[in-house]
Design a protein that fits this description.
By secondary structure, this protein is of the alpha/beta class. It contains 20 helices and 19 strands.
C-alpha cells in the first residue's frame, strides 16, 4: 500500500536517512530539485523555451527552489529566482544553494538567470511576465495564516496567467490537515517529496494542489518500511489483491450470507439499495428483514433478495417484539447489516442494543442504527465480534459526543483514537472517506466525487461492505475495499450522468462494471 505521511513522519524519515544511513541533507535536497525538474519537463511541453519564476522562502523549501533553478538552467530554461529574504538570513543547505545561484547570476552572460532578493509584490510586478511560477516559499512545517507580505505575493502568483508548480505543498496549506486560514497558492501541479502528505488529500489542500506528483528523493526503501507510518492511500491494486476468490465448486451459502435489517415507511428505498448492493458485491444470499406491513411491497420490488416480514407498529416501523425472529435470522447469517431507513424509535434502539449484546456475529451499523446509540457507544467495548460503523460527520458527532467542527478539523487522529478506544472499524464518510481500524491503521480512499452527496449513496456503501465482508475479507479490508469500490462506481456514474444528475441507483448500477474490472 502507498504510505501517506504527516509532516512529522516525513521529517522522521528524512532524519533517519541522514543520521542512520549517512546521506547528507544537501544530497536529499539535490535529489528533490532534480526530481522536480524531471517532473516539470515531463508534464509541461516546451519548458526549455519558457520563462520560469521561482519564489523561494528562507527554509529548506526555498533551498529546494534554489537548487531547482540550477537544473532548469542546465536544460535551457530562462529562470528568475526571487528570494523573499536576504541571502544572509538563510541557513544550512538552503544557504549553500542560494549562494551558488547568487554567484551564477553574477557571472551569467547569457541572460538566462536572474536573481532578485528581498522580493515584494511591487518588485514582482516589474519583472518580465513568467510562463511558469514555482512556489518554493513555505514547506510542510507551516501552520496558521500567511504573513501580509507573503499573502500579497501569493495573491499576485495566483493572478498571473502562468502554470503554477508547488514544491512539496502549496504555501498556505497545513501539510497534516489540508486546512488553510487565508489565501493559498493555487497550483496546477504539486511536486511532493518522498511520500504524499496527508494535507494534500483533504480540502482545501486537495482543491489547490492540482495534480500530485510524488518525487523519489532516494531515501532508502527500508526507512519507509521500518517507519511507524500507519496511514495509507488505497489503490486499485490493493483492492484487487484483497478481493475474495471463488473456487469452482462453491454454492451460494458458501460465498456469503447477509441479513439486512432496514427500512420503514417512506424509507423503503434504503432497504432495497442496501440489500441489492450486498448481492451485487458478490454475496451468495441476502435476506432483508422488513416491517410486516411493507413486506409485500418489498417482495414486488426485489426479485433476488429474500424478505423476512417482522412485527411492526402498523405504521411500517419495527417493534421490539420482532426480536426473536431477528435473532434467529442473525444466527443464519455470516454478516448483519443494520440501520438504513429503520427510524429512531425506542423499539429500534432496543433492537440495536440487543444486536450488540446478544449476537456475536460481524455487524455493519449505519444511519439510524448509529443514531440510536448516541451516548451509549460503550456497548462496543463488551463485544467479542467485530463491528464496522459507517457514519457521516453528523452521525459520528452524535455517537461520539465530539463537535462536528472538531471532527472536520482533525478527522484522521480523531477517527484513529475512536476506533482504537472502542475496538471497532470506523468508516468516516466524507471527502475523502477514511477507514480507521482498532490496530491504528488509517486508510484514505481516493475514489468518489461530490455527485455522491445524494440520498441513498450511503445505503449502497453499507450493502457493498456487508457483501464483501460476508465473503471472507477482514473487517478493515471489507471497509477500505468497499469504500474504494463504492467511490469508483460513483466516478463511473459521474461519467455517465454528471455530478448533478446521478443518483444512488446509478451508483449501484455502476458496481457491475467496476467489480468486473477489479475482480473479474
Amino acid at each position: 500500500m502507498l504510505r501517506i505521511a504527516s509532516a512529522q513522519e516525513m521529517r522522521g524519515c528524512d532524519e533517519e536517512a541522514i543520521k542512520g544511513y549517512g546521506i547528507p541533507g544537501i544530497v536529499l535536497m539535490e535529489n528533490a530539485a532534480r526530481g522536480t525538474a524531471d517532473a516539470m519537463y515531463e508534464h509541461i511541453p516546451g519548458l526549455s523555451s519558457k520563462h520560469i519564476l521561482i519564489a523561494c522562502g528562507k527554509g529548506n523549501n526555498g533551498g529546494d527552489g534554489f537548487a531547482l533553478a540550477r537544473h532548469l538552467i542546465e536544460r535551457g530554461s530562462t529562470v528568475t529566482v526571487a528570494s523573499l529574504s536576504p541571502v544572509s538570513q538563510l541557513k544550512g543547505d538552503a544557504r549553500i544553494n542560494a549562494d551558488i545561484i547568487q554567484k551564477m547570476s553574477r557571472t551569467d552572460s547569457s541572460g538566462t538567470l536572474s536573481f532578485v532578493k528581498s522580493i515584494t509584490r511591487d518588485k514582482l510586478e516589474k519583472l518580465p511576465k513568467p510562463d511558469v511560477i514555482v512556489d518554493a516559499i513555505l514547506g510542510t512545517g507551516f501552520k496558521g495564516k500567511l504573513k501580509p507580505k507573503v499573502s500579497s505575493i501569493v495573491e499576485w502568483m495566483n493572478g498571473e496567467p502562468a502554470i503554477r508548480i508547488a514544491v512539496d505543498i502549496p504555501s498556505g496549506i497545513d501539510a497534516d490537515t489540508g486546512s488553510s486560514e487565508g489565501v493559498t497558492v493555487q497550483a496546477d501541479y504539486t511536486c511532493t517529496m518522498g511520500l504524499i502528505k496527508t494535507g494534500l488529500l483533504f480540502s482545501p489542500g486537495r482543491d489547490v494542489a492540482g495534480k500530485i506528483l510524488c518525487i523519489d528523493i532516494q531515501i532508502p526503501p527500508e526507512v519507509f518500511r521500518q517507519s511507524k507510518i500507519q496511514t495509507f492511500l488505497v489503490q486499485e491494486s490493493d483492492v484487487r489483491k484483497a478481493a475474495p476468490k471463488r473456487s469452482l465448486d462453491v454454492h451460494k451459502y458458501q460465498v456469503g450470507k447477509v441479513f439486512v435489517l432496514a427500512g420503514s415507511t417512506g424509507l423503503t428505498g434504503a432497504a432495497a439499495l442496501t440489500s441489492m448492493s450486498a448481492l451485487r458485491s458478490g454475496a451468495g444470499a441476502v435476506v432483508l428483514g422488513v416491517p410486516d406491513s411493507l413486506n409485500l411491497m418489498m417482495e414486488k420490488k426485489l426479485t433476488e433478495v429474500m424478505t423476512l416480514p417482522l412485527a411492526d407498529n402498523g405504521s411500517g416501523v419495527l417493534l421490539a417484539s420482532a426480536w426473536e425472529r431477528i435473532k434467529q435470522q442473525c444466527e443464519w447469517a455470516d454478516v448483519i447489516a443494520a440501520g438504513p431507513g429503520l427510524s429512531g424509535t425506542d423499539d429500534i434502539k432496543e433492537i440495536i442494543v440487543r444486536l450488540l449484546q446478544q449476537i456475536q456475529k460481524p455487524i455493519v451499523l449505519d444511519a439510524d442504527a448509529i443514531n440510536v446509540l448516541a451516548g451509549n457507544d460503550t456497548l462496543f467495548d463488551k463485544r467479542n465480534a467485530p463491528v464496522i460503523l459507517t457514519p457521516h460527520t453528523g452521525e459520528f458527532s452524535r455517537l461520539s459526543g465530539i463537535d462536528s467542527t472538531d471532527i472536520n478539523r482533525d478527522r484522521l487522529p480523531l477517527a484513529r483514537r475512536y476506533a482504537q478506544r472502542r475496538k471497532i472499524t470506523l468508516l468516516l464518510k466524507g471527502g475523502p472517506s477514511i477507514v480507521a481500524s482498532e490496530n491504528g491503521n488509517l486508510y484514505i480512499n481516493g475514489t468518489g466525487n461530490p455527485g455522491m452527496a445524494t440520498a441513498g449513496a450511503g445505503d449502497v456503501l453499507t450493502g457493498v461492505i456487508a457483501g464483501l465482508w460476508a465473503q471472507g475479507l477482514t473487517d478493515e479490508a471489507a471497509a477500505y475495499c468497499g469504500a474504494y469500490i463504492h467511490g469508483a462506481a460513483g466516478d463511473r456514474a459521474k461519467e455517465n450522468y454528471g455530478e448533478r444528475a446521478m443518483t444512488a441507483g446509478d451508483i449501484q448500477e455502476a458496481l457491475l462494471k467496476v467489480l468486473k474490472g477489479i475482480t473479474g
